[in-house]
Amino acid sequence: MKKSTLYAAWGGMFVLCAGLGFLQEPKGAARAALTVISLLFFCPPALLLWQACGEGDRRTAAIVRNLSALSLGMTAVLVIVNILSAFGSDALGLFLHGMLTIVSAPMLCSGYWALSLFLWACLLIASLAFLRKR
After folding, report:
1. Of 114, 44, 24, 38, which Cα lies nearest the Cα of 72?
2. How far apart are CA 57 and CA 12, in angstroms?
3. Which residues make Cβ contacts (< 8 Å) with residue 130, sequence separation at least 6?
4. How many of the other CB atoms lie within 10 Å of CB of 114?
5. Nearest of 119, 12, 134 to residue 61 by alpha carbon
6. pTM to 2 decimals?
7. 3-state class of 134 per DSSP?
8. pLDDT tens figures, 49-81
9. Cβ neighbours around 72 below 10 Å, total
10. What are the tens digits of pLDDT across the range 6-29?
């Protein structure tokens, strides 16, 4: 599959997950569907990384690495800031939660935070391992 197609699919999945992350407490089949969608979010970057490893493409692997590290780092910062803002105003809390929803789109879309963080970490570790070999 072409890299441009995979990048476009990844971007589209990001927008979809970010939008669906704003749904309030889905139940039953809707929650299962959101979990599947958030898992599908990780397919394009995994395919990009797999292709990069096969072709020796360090640039693509570095992009996956950088985006994974950025997502994990910003998620950690925003979770901490969200917790620290618990005694702040409601507007601040809503703003920070909205930022977290956008930055960590698949995490809040699925509702299973550890699953999304684990998959981001898998992408990060796999890209680091490939970049260290070469």
Report:
1. 114
2. 23
3. 49, 52, 53, 58, 61
4. 9
5. 134
6. 0.89
7. coil
8. 999 999 999 999 999 999 999 999 999 999 999
9. 17
10. 999 999 999 999 999 888 888 889
